[in-house]
Design brief:
By secondary structure, this protein is of the alpha+beta class. It has helices spanning 49-57, 63-75, 82-92, 128-131, 133-164, 186-196, 206-215, 232-236, 243-254, 270-281, 283-288, 302-317, 343-355, 369-372, 456-462; strands at residues 28-37, 44-45, 98-102, 108-109, 114-120, 175-177, 260-264, 292-296, 320-321, 327-328, 333-337, 363-367, 382-391, 394-397, 415-419, 425-429, 442-446, 449-450. The strands form five sheets. Strands 14-13-1-5-3-17-18 form a seven-stranded antiparallel beta sheet. Strands 6-12-11-8-7 form a five-stranded parallel beta sheet. It starts with 27 loop residues before the first strand and ends with a helix.
C-alpha cells in the first residue's frame, strides 16, 4: 500500500490528532502547551529532549512524507491536513515553526513543575504544538523517568557509603545497567541506558555508548565502562563436575594486577561455590591473582542471599574493620547482585547488609528491567497539556479541571519556572515574572534550529555528578 518510513514525523502521532486542526476555534493563532511530571516518588531529572530534537526535528518534512502520510491516514479512515503540511514545507522548508523551552538537561526539579513548554511561532500553525504531543511527551517522559529512578538509587547508595565506607569514590560504579535484553527496543535501550549514565558510569548496554556519541558530544570520551563477566552458558558448558575448572579458567583469563572480572556462581550451588571452590580449592589463586573477583549470585531472595554470601566469604577470606566500624572483605573479592533489583529491593538489601555489620562497599548492584522497563508514563504521572491560546490577538488561559479527579487538574497560562526566596523551585505564570532572567526555562529549539547542545559531561555536572 505504501513505503514504510518510521522516521516520517507526520505519522509519529496518535491517529486522533490528524483531525484536530479543524477543531480549534476560528481565529486561533498560537497554542502554548507544557510538560510536567504531576506526581511521583522521585524528583525529576530532566533528560532526553536534545536526543529527540537531533534525531527527529533536525530533518525537514518533505513532500514525499506528506504523500505517504496522506495515503496512510486516509486509508485509516481519517481526514488529513494536506494543505497545512504543504504550507509548512513551502513556507518553512519542512522545519517545524515551533519554539521549545525547557530546563537544561540534568536539572533536578520537584514534581508538579513545568519542565518543557512549546508554542508555534507562525499563527498559520496553531495546531502544531498539540500535534507533536505524542512524540515529544514520549521523548521526555521515558528517559527522564529512568534518569530520575537512577538518581534516586544513587542517593540511597551514597547515603549507605557515607555511613559505612571510608569514602564514596566508587559511587559512580555502584549501580550497573543490565537492562539491554529486557528493553522493548533498541531505541529504548539507547535512551534509557543513556539516561542512567547521567548518574552512573557502569553499563553493559553498548547501544548507550553509541547514543552518547551521536546525541551528546561524547565521541572522543568513553562515558561508561564494564568488566569481563561470565554467564551461565560459559560456566555450565564445563559440566557440574567441571565447575572448579571453569572458575579457574576465569582467573587465568582475566586475573591480574588492577583487573576485575565477574563470575556468576550459582549455576548449581552458590554455597558450595563460595565455601569449597572460591574459598577452598581456588582460595590462594584468588588471593594472589592481583585483581578483584566479583562473585554474582543470580537467584533466590536477594536480601537473604547477599547477606549469607557476605558472611560465608568473611569466614573464608576474613574482613577488616574500616573507620566507620563496618566489616570490609579483602580488596580481591566482592559481590554484585543483579537479580531482582529495584529501588525498593536495593534499599532493603543495603539495610540488611549494614545491619549485619558489613560496609555497603562490599556490594555492587546490577539493575535491568527495574531500570529500563518497569517504568511507564504513570510512574511519575507525566502529561503534556495546552495551557494558553491566542484567538484573534487575545490570549486566554485554557485548562482541564475534572471534578472526578483533582489530581488531573492542569496548569493555566504561559508558564515559567523560578526559584522562590528560599531557593525552592515553583511554577508561575510567565506574566508574573518580574525579571525574565529568573525564568529557568531556556530556549532549546526555534524553527528547526537546536539552540542548546550539551555534552553528557555537562549534563552529569548539573545532576550532581
Amino acid at each position: 500500500m505504501y513505503t514504510s518510513n518510521l522516521n516520517n514525523l507526520i505519522l509519529n502521532s496518535d491517529s486522533y490528532k490528524t483531525s484536530h486542526w479543524v477543531q480549534y476555534p476560528n481565529g486561533s493563532e498560537y497554542l502554548s502547551s507544557y510538560i510536567e511530571a504531576r506526581k511521583g516518588d522521585y524528583d525529576v531529572v530532566f533528560f532526553g529532549l536534545q536526543a529527540f530534537i537531533k534525531k527527529y526535528l533536525s530533518t525537514p518534512i518533505t513532500t514525499q512524507d506528506i504523500d505517504e502520510a496522506e495515503m496512510v491516514i486516509q486509508a485509516h479512515g481519517l481526514t488529513f491536513n494536506r494543505a497545512g503540511w504543504e504550507r509548512l514545507v513551502a513556507k518553512h522548508g519542512g522545519y517545524l515553526p515551533l519554539r521549545i523551552e525547557a530546563i537544561p538537561e540534568g536539572s533536578i526539579v520537584p514534581v508538579s513543575n513545568v519542565v518543557c513548554q512549546v508554542i508555534n511561532t507562525d499563527p498559520e500553525f496553531y495546531w502544531l504544538p498539540s500535534y507533536i504531543e505524542t512524540a515529544l511527551l514520549r521523548a521526555i517522559w521515558y528517559p527522564s523517568t529512568v534518569a530520575s529512578v537512577s538518581h534516586y538509587c544513587k542517593g540511597i547508595i551514597r547515603q549507605a557509603l557515607e555511613k559505612s565506607a571510608d569514602n564514596t569514590a566508587s559511587l559512580p560504579f555502584r549501580l550497573h545497567d543490565f537492562g539491554a535484553r529486557g528493553a522493548s527496543s533498541q531505541e529504548t535501550v539507547a535512551l534509557g541506558s543513556l539516561a542512567h549514565l547521567v548518574n552512573f558510569a557502569g553499563t553493559d548496554s553498548m547501544t548507550a555508548l553509541v547514543a552518547a556519541s551521536r546525541w551528546y558530544q561524547m565521541g572522543k570520551d568513553m562515558p561508561a565502562f564494564s568488566i569481563p563477566a561470565a554467564e551461565h552458558s560459559t560456566m555450565t558448558a564445563w559440566g557440574r563436575d567441571g565447575e572448579t575448572a571453569a572458575f579457574a579458567n576465569m582467573i587465568e583469563q582475566f586475573g591480574g594486577k588492577d583487573k576485575a572480572f565477574s563470575v556468576v556462581s550459582d549455576s548449581y550451588d552458590l554455597w558450595n561455590a563460595i565455601d569449597n571452590i572460591w574459598g577452598g580449592s581456588l582460595k590462594e589463586d584468588v588471593k594472589n591473582m592481583g585483581g578483584t573477583l566479583v562473585i554474582r549470585p543470580d537467584s533466590g531472595e536477594p536480601t537473604k542471599v547477599v547477606r549469607e554470601a557476605l558472611e560465608r566469604l568473611a569466614v573464608k577470606f576474613g574482613t577488616t574493620t574500616n573507620s566507620k566500624g563496618y566489616k570490609v572483605l579483602p580488596d580481591y573479592v566482592r559481590i554484585i547482585q543483579g537479580d531482582g533489583i529495584s529501588p525498593q529491593s536495593l534499599s532493603k538489601i543495603i539495610e540488611v547488609v549494614m545491619k549485619a555489620g558489613f560496609s555497603a562497599e562490599n556490594v555492587t548492584f546490577g539493575m535491568g528491567g527495574g531500570l529500563l522497563q518497569q517504568v511507564n508514563r504513570d510512574t511519575m504521572s507525566w502529561a503534556m497539556k495546552a495551557s494558553s491560546i491566542s484567538i484573534d490577538g487575545v490570549w486566554k488561559d485554557i485548562y482541564k479541571d475534572p471534578v472526578t479527579s483533582r489530581s488531573k487538574r492542569s496548569k493555566k497560562g504561559r508558564l515559567a519556572l523560578v526559584k522562590d526566596d528560599s531557593g525552592a523551585m515553583q511554577t508561575i505564570k510567565a506574566n508574573d515574572l518580574t525579571n525574565e532572567a529568573d525564568n529557568l526555562l531556556r530556549e532549546v529549539y526555534i524553527d528547526g534550529q537546536l539552540l542548546m547542545d550539551d555534552s553528557l559531561t555537562t549534563i552529569r555536572e548539573r545532576a550532581g555528578w
